[in-house]
Amino acid sequence: MVKRDALGDLFESLIPLALRKTLVRGSSDFVRVRALATILVAITTLSIAATLLVTLQHLVFQPELLYLDLISMGIISIFILQTWIFYKFGNYKLSGKLLTHTLFVTVLLLVIVSGGYDSEMRLLLLCTPMIACLIGGQREGIYCIAFTVVVGLLLTFMKSQGIVLENMFQQASGHITSTMCWVILIALMATCLTVYEYSALEKLQGDKKP
User: Fold this and answer.
1) Where are the domains of the chain?
2) Mean pLDDT in residue range 153-171
3) Is the pLDDT of residue 74 over 50?
4) I need a labelling partner for 105 at 20 to 30 A (CA). Which of 15, 113, 150, 152 fits?
5) Regarding predicted confidence, which is higher, 52 or 196?
């Protein structure tokens, strides 16, 4: 029997009860559902926390930039809605596709409106292929990697041709935006790798059963 620990209990507690009862533990679908639930909660929580911090900073020091926080609130609303859909209906295949597509489009739009090639948000594009592979499988991951490479090449080409995209966030504190991006990037990467490592170890322990 696979050894249970606090980390495993935490991951599994995020899985909707109905799916916990129907999916076979250790199956590929079970692993993807566990990753999907963990990443949905992580993205939603990180987004809310980051937006609250930035909004508070704008409220105190730069109230003229509060309109930018409305954009963040709109994005958060999308992820909250997706989280609700996942836990309400339990359709993990649909929820997985919605998350990967929404995350990619959201990050791409943020990159475009915040300066393109020079955007502080550009690093977040690296998260999308990793998340797509983990919750959608190899095929989804390859598609996402291809789109990310194409976007990177287009941004580089535009930069080389002197095409400059306006940075709507240029009045905001650059170091704060950069720090938030790094925190979200590192946290999402850590979440993905932790879920993957736990699933791999669980599979190895399962294979060693007599």
Assistant:
1) 6-11+25-204
2) 85
3) yes
4) 15
5) 52
